[in-house]
Amino acid sequence: MQLNTLGTPLILFLILFFFGGTFLLSLSIGRKRENADNYMTAGNEVGFGISAASMTATWIWAASLYASATSGYTYGISGPIHYGLWGALMILFIYPFGRRIRSIAPNAHTLAEILHARHGRSSQLILAGSNLLGSLLSLTSNFIAGGALISMLSPVSFSAGILMIGTGVLLYTLWSGVRASILTDFIQVCAMLGAVVIIVPAVFFAAGGPEIFTTGAVHLTPSQQSFFSSDAFFNQGAPYIAAVLAYAIGNQTIAQRLFAVREDKIRQTFVTATVGYGATVIGVGILGVLALYLGVEPMNGDTNNLIPQLASMYLGPILLCVFFVMVIGSLASTADSDLAAMSSIVMTDIYGRNIAKDGEADPRLLLLVGRVTMITATLAALFFASSKFNILELLVLVGAIWGALVFPVIASFYWDKVTNRAFSVSVVAALAAFFPVRFGWIALEGSTAFVTDLLAVIGVGVIAGLMIFGFLGRTAGVIAGAIAALVVLPFGIGFLHQYPVLTASLLAYAVSMILCVALSWAGRERFDFGRISAETGNFDDATPTV
User: Fold this and answer.
1) Rounded to whole angstroms, how far apart are CA atoms 438 and 440?
2) Average per-residue pLDDT for the chain
């Protein structure tokens, strides 16, 4: 089938229209006297509507839309559900931990800043470094998605496409930091939700409607036709459950919105974002399932091309423009969040709390550091985007790396016996266990397979326990974790190592938990959580309310 395109002039007009509009919007929140704290946290006073839209838009990024479609194309009808449902629930699971974080550090700028007050420099820099890496890879993923879209729908090259996307996002975010990101998120999420309601049904009926599911069934394996596919669960669902819990705790883009929203609006914000994310991402993932039923082969063998390829096959010029704006809005909403997150980390955790002397960080220099960070990060992401990584694999990899941090970070916010040594050693050891298994550097055979399976079973218990602990407390969390591990134990031993991606993620949770608890249990230190509020907070003398 012939692909419909928009042509270079129309693509350039849409990009100029979208990014020009967001830039003008960001100018409306400029100040004669810039404020470093507002640049990072928007004064901690953003209301419910804007916060919910911003959280939804940040979690719905172009990479997640593309990855959901890839999951549908790879694993069949259960693929988008395993991708979208667990991602949505993880937003909800952030909520109780978010309330705890805001209660002990109401004016913090980053999670790593809290760890600096809780443990010291090494723990802070471990978390800050992992967040910088994760946000950079996230930014890279969004540039890849934008480049693939533009090159598919126009004669413009992939390289030129990522350059236009990177420049557009940088221009409006550079001006006012997280304030620009949050304000433009509201417009972007409205565009995304509206477009999804139109685009997915339009492609479905243009491709043949309900008849697709009867005539195209020959293209699916029995596993791809099942809602309860074990292949989809163990290769996609289970690793993603582990990955998105890690995203929930280790991702500064989410934490930044947690610090920005009014404290009394945290629950409403997270519940609303849960519903919005799930509906949108599962809906777009259906496009991948349609491609599977239609027997579509991804152009150039790259599954990142599936969504723009289907759009260009079945949409006319007007709907193709709507589709283009939807994807650009989704990638911009997260790319600007990544830039704002990285600037806050460098401003706070590198300059503000380590280079500058206590209480002597210059707010004007902080702003300069933040803007230079954004420019540097954009250039680095453009360089990495030229490699065209597989977005789905990239997302799972980043989330799994963050899995090593989840238990030590959460424990540090609740348990007064966790030490800096326990935190640092447990995270480094968990990463040392993760990488050899994830990348197949060691053979999972014999006694090695038994040990990894056993630790993976413990990892299942850790994840289940943390989810329940946030809502129901320590006792319920311990019981839930123990029950989950015991239920998985009989079939997990001798089985889980067959799925190295899942096993590596579960290893990270298990090793970090075991070492963190073991090294902290016998300690005599007792930390006063009241110190955190006093040692984190504003760099400016006065922070005006937004």
Assistant:
1) 6
2) 83
